Amino acid sequence: MNTIIYPLNTGYIRLDKGAYITPGDGYGMEVEVPTWAFFVTDGKEKLLVDTGMSETKSADWHHKGSHQPEGFRIDEQLGKLGVKPEEIDAVFFTHLHWDHCSNMKLFSNAQFYVHEKELAFARDPHLLYHKSYESKKLGVVPPFDGVEFQIVDGEFKYNNFITLFPTPGHCPGHQSVEVKTDQGTYIIAGDAVFADENMKPDHHRNLPFTPMGRYVNVFEMFSSMETIFDRADHILTGHGMGVSFTNVYP
Ligand SMILES: [Zn+2]
Q1: 151 Cα to the center of ligand 1, angstroms
Q2: Ligand 1 centroid vs 124 CA: distance in angstroms?
Q3: Tens-digit pLDDT string for the chain (250 aa)
Q4: Label partner for 211 (CA 20 to 30 A): which of 20, 117, 194, 196?
Q5: pTM higher than 0.85, yes or no?
Q6: Distance (Å, whole) CA 6 – CA 230
């Protein structure tokens, strides 16, 4: 097996560290975090996990000050690897928040995999989470409007190196992607493990890791993190600086 994972930075989100990443520490501190999508290939299949965030005007509407630099759009980042959008066979969505599924229609030959609960929630988001999605209720046409999905409703083995598994909590239908490589199991965790800080012990609450501050169900979020830490040899976060440690994994 010669599976390779390329992290693709699709832009930067500005958020409050205490509110989003480390509850109890860093309230009022604005930070900027990268927004990762991942290209996964065994040399034959060309696969994506998420399609990343939207352009600056829309990003700024979601989270003031967020921006997508020139050349960071998902197809532009893939282009740097010599991959065209129409070559992608499948896209696995961790979830359908605006910063994970923008520009999906560029992938004209891909099958789109999403968890059943996530699609249902994204099509009719609760008022509290309106701006995490894009919704006609807010006068915004979401990127998944009219798209046909492959629906997943539990653990799903796609092939001999990719398995999707449910990791709800951050949102109702979040899932993570297990990738088997020669160097062990990588979990592309999406926002179930948001940033580097979330992998460190939480000394305030005496916990082995730090649950993030933004969720729809705190108990599900906690057990999803436990599952990920159990299954993973290596974790790739949705918004951590640490992902940029190298251009290619393993
Ligand atoms: Zn995100």
Answers
A1: 21
A2: 19
A3: 699 999 999 999 999 999 999 998 999 999 999 999 999 999 999 999 999 999 999 999 999 999 999 999 999 999 999 999 999 999 999 999 999 999 999 999 999 999 999 999 999 999 999 899 998 888 899 999 999 999 999 999 999 999 999 999 999 999 999 999 999 999 999 999 999 999 999 988 899 999 999 999 999 999 999 999 999 999 999 999 999 999 999 9
A4: 117
A5: yes
A6: 23
Cα of 135 to ligand 1 centre, how many Å? 17
| Ranges of each domain in the chain | 4-245
Q: What are phi and psi of 216, to 5 degrees?
A: -105, -20
Domain 4-245 class, CATH top level:
alpha beta
Contact 34, 9 (CB under 8 A): yes
